Amino acid sequence: MILTRRRILGAALLIPLDGLAQTCGVVTPRQTEGPFFTPNSPLRTALVEAGSKAQRFVVSGRVLSPQCQPLANALVDVWHADEDGEYDNRGYRYRGHQFTDGEGRYHFETIVPALYPGRARHYHLKIQPKGGRILTTQLYFPGDPSNSRDGLYSRDLELKTSRSGEGAFDFVVAA
Is the model's pTM score more than 0.90? Predict the structure, then answer.
């Protein structure tokens, strides 16, 4: 049998795609920490404050390597504005951290933050794989009218929403 370009390409179509190495692509973009980061946040997944009347929101996802491998025990630190668009700079309201599980999963329960002057609604995060570099970034709400007025907004950092009150985002970080 003579190998021609057409036969080689045809044979390649018969190879199952799940047998090929996958890549997750680009590492999640970095963004500014902003002026309100506070170190040593409490270890917790529920950030909702007692008495808050703000809309509840659950954010979940995974922390992955550039080769799509889940990263267990990665630090996920989050902070954001409250229901009045203010940050708590004296305590730890709407601040907390957790570590991913064995499958690289994280999830936190919080609120939809109010608008902070000049910014779109967003969450701040620091992601650090065990022994790796810290990725500081932000997550945004898709379709929020304030996105177009925010100079930091990035479509690449939008939460994926499929149900009301829930959003997902997978972080890809250099391990």
Answer: no
